[in-house]
From TrEMBL:
<feature type="domain" description="PPIase FKBP-type">
    <location>
        <begin position="7"/>
        <end position="81"/>
    </location>
</feature>
<dbReference type="InterPro" id="IPR001179">
    <property type="entry name" value="PPIase_FKBP_dom"/>
</dbReference>
<dbReference type="InterPro" id="IPR046357">
    <property type="entry name" value="PPIase_dom_sf"/>
</dbReference>
<keyword id="KW-0697">Rotamase</keyword>
<protein>
    <recommendedName>
        <fullName>Peptidyl-prolyl cis-trans isomerase</fullName>
        <ecNumber>5.2.1.8</ecNumber>
    </recommendedName>
</protein>
<dbReference type="Pfam" id="PF00254">
    <property type="entry name" value="FKBP_C"/>
</dbReference>
<dbReference type="GO" id="GO:0003755">
    <property type="term" value="F:peptidyl-prolyl cis-trans isomerase activity"/>
</dbReference>
<keyword id="KW-0413">Isomerase</keyword>
<dbReference type="InterPro" id="IPR048261">
    <property type="entry name" value="SlpA/SlyD-like_ins_sf"/>
</dbReference>
<comment type="similarity">
    <text>Belongs to the FKBP-type PPIase family.</text>
</comment>
Length: 143
């Protein structure tokens, strides 16, 4: 019997949902996804939850914000001069910024004022507990 280990390639169906049951992402109605353990496709705590599972096994895990996308961090909210934005803005819009290393950094427009714009650089799911539902379809040795 194949068990998921730290050297597995795993093919699975998954669903992520919020506390109120709203589905954030799912592939139960599509082709299953595959990943190699430790390749960064899944957050570490999500991978750890799969250890020891077998083919055809289904499970549901509740992931706290700390194990999912982190807690909401007030220092990730920035106030910027509205003059820095050349485009029309709407609250909830995602805008791409570059950090000091020129990496892309998405920010959500949280508030638009007369002179300032408040941008939230927290992950949109930060501070949320998520329900992670999985069904293991295949397990292979990734080595």
């Amino acid at each position: 019997m194949s068990l998921i280990t730290v050297s597995s390639r795993v093919t699975l169906h998954f669903e992520l949902s919020l506390e109120d049951g709203q589905i954030v992402d799912t592939n139960f109605d599509k082709a299953p996804a595959s990943f190699v353990f430790g390749d960064g496709s899944l957050l570490p705590a999500f991978e750890e939850a799969l250890l020891g599972m077998t083919i055809d096994q289904e499970a549901t895990f509740v992931m706290s914000p700390e194990k999912a996308f982190g807690v909401h961090n007030e220092s990730n909210i920035q106030r910027m001069p509205r003059s820095q934005f050349a485009m029309d803005l709407e609250e909830g819009m995602v805008v791409s910024f570059a950090d000091m290393s020129k990496n892309e950094l998405p920010g959500v427009i949280a508030e638009i004022g007369e002179k300032d714009v408040v941008v939230d650089f927290n992950h949109p799911l930060a501070g949320r507990s998520l329900t992670f539902k999985v069904r293991i379809m295949a397990i292979e040795d990734a080595a």
